[in-house]
Write a structure and sequence with these properties.
Layout: E1 2-4, E2 7-10, E3 14-17, E4 20-23, E5 26-28, E6 36-38, E7 43-46, E8 48-50, E9 55-56, E10 59-60, H1 66-78, E11 81-84, E12 87-88, H2 93-109, E13 115-116, E14 119-121, H3 144-153, E15 158-163, H4 170-177, E16 182-185, H5 192-201, E17 205-206, H6 222-229, E18 234-238, H7 246-256, E19 260-263, E20 275-279, E21 282-287, E22 290-292, H8 305-314, H9 319-333, E23 351-354, E24 360-365, E25 368-372
Parallel strand pairs: 1-6, 2-7, 8-11, 11-13, 12-14, 14-15, 15-16, 16-17, 17-18, 18-19
Antiparallel strand pairs: 1-4, 2-3, 4-5, 7-23, 9-10, 20-21, 21-22, 23-24, 24-25
């Protein structure tokens, strides 16, 4: 198939006016089947990768339910998110093992929807002072043996693990596992010095930057300042218009340049009306798209990643930078960039077509048109 008339995302040049050719499941340099798709006045971008979200459409990854996971994957695909790496909440080891095993079985069954490429272990190695919407009853100090048991239960699907570096044994934990998974600083009261030590120990990502962590002060730069000084550190950013002020979004893209990873951090209320929902084993109330616990604590977002990309552009972020943050960088972070995340020949043809208003027009998955608006 040849997709014509569009401006095509290029990792180095931004957007170029050219045709995009598909050869079966792959992006190609030419097309010989005679099929065309008219994308005049549109943008073609890689399918997005959300490496930090919990659920949508009334379902949560932490439910440990294959049918629910399929519903999540189907919704994500319909929104141009073609690769997913869902996050677990802080739960018991028994529950976490069940969730991991469900993911393994789900992936082996090759059920429809966005492709499952990993698991994000957001809990339980978090600081009680910055627990956010996580259940304090299940929080615990970093435990290498526990992580290895979960990696085994997930058949290696765990790609990221969040850690509060001030917890007992955290630095030793980071040093021990940094070659196996991406360690991300998260839900932490760590100061600049402790966070910097964690990056030296091997941490290389920050979970939802600015949220559930020490603030960025001029005399105490905290985790944000430490991440800025760690050149290999990537930072997650929620652009739902609620978690981060637009001015801070612009500042973070300026400070961290090409190191930003857009995430949705969506919970089961994404794609659903306002009301009461569960997150982990806690009740969340959604009003006007804002999800919060009874005490007002933010509890994830109700915004999918494609909507976050559009929000970022509305906040003043150039489209190419937003696409890099939502497609290129997350694919790199979970080790799938050799196959996905850009529109180079030989990569899988997972593609989103946006109209001039950045509304989703079509989704291609493995070279096939699967959604059209």
């Amino acid at each position: 198939m040849r997709i014509t008339g569009a401006r095509v995302f290029d990792v180095t040049m931004g957007f170029t006016s050219r045709d995009l050719c598909l050869d079966g499941r792959l992006i190609s340099t030419d097309s010989t089947d005679g099929q065309t798709y008219d994308a005049a006045d549109c943008y073609i971008i890689p399918g997005l990768t959300d490496l930090h979200f919990h659920g949508c459409k009334g379902h949560d990854f932490s439910d440990g339910d294959s049918d629910g996971l399929e519903a999540i994957a189907q919704y994500q695909l319909s929104r141009g998110v073609t690769q997913i790496c869902p996050a677990v909440m802080t739960l018991s080891e028994e529950s976490l093992v069940q969730i991991c095993r469900t993911a393994v079985d789900y992936r082996a069954a090759k059920r429809p929807g966005a492709a499952l490429y990993g698991i994000n272990l957001e809990g339980p190695f978090l600081a009680p002072e910055q627990k956010g919407a996580h259940n304090e009853n299940w929080l615990r100090a970093p435990d290498i043996a526990l992580l290895h048991r979960l990696i085994e239960a997930s058949d290696g699907l765990i790609k990221l693990v969040s850690v509060a570096p001030e917890l007992p044994g955290a630095l030793n934990f980071i040093e021990a596992v940094a070659d196996e998974v991406t360690v991300s600083l998260s839900h932490t009261a760590a100061d600049f010095e402790v966070a910097s030590a964690a990056f030296r120990a091997g941490a290389r990502q920050v979970t939802h930057l600015c949220n559930a962590m020490s603030p960025f002060y001029h005399r105490e730069p905290g985790v944000v300042g430490a991440a800025l000084d760690a050149p290999d550190c990537m930072v997650e950013l929620i652009c739902d218009g609620i978690h981060i002020h637009p001015a801070m979004v612009r500042a973070i893209f300026t400070m961290f340049a090409k190191r930003v990873i857009l995430i949705s951090d969506s919970m089961r209320a994404a794609g659903m009306p306002d009301g009461s929902y569960a997150l982990g084993d806690q009740t969340v109330t959604v009003q006007g798209g804002r999800a919060s616990l009874a005490d007002g604590t933010l509890a994830g977002s109700t915004c999918d990643l494609m909507a976050c990309l559009k929000n970022a552009v509305s906040m003043g972020i150039p489209l190419a930078a937003a696409v890099t943050a939502a497609a290129v960088n997350p694919a790199r972070a979970i080790g799938i960039y050799s196959r996905l995340g850009s529109l180079e020949p030989g990569k899988l043809a997972n593609i989103a077509v946006l109209d001039k208003n950045l509304d989703l027009k079509a989704v291609f998955f493995l070279g096939k048109l699967v959604q059209e608006y």
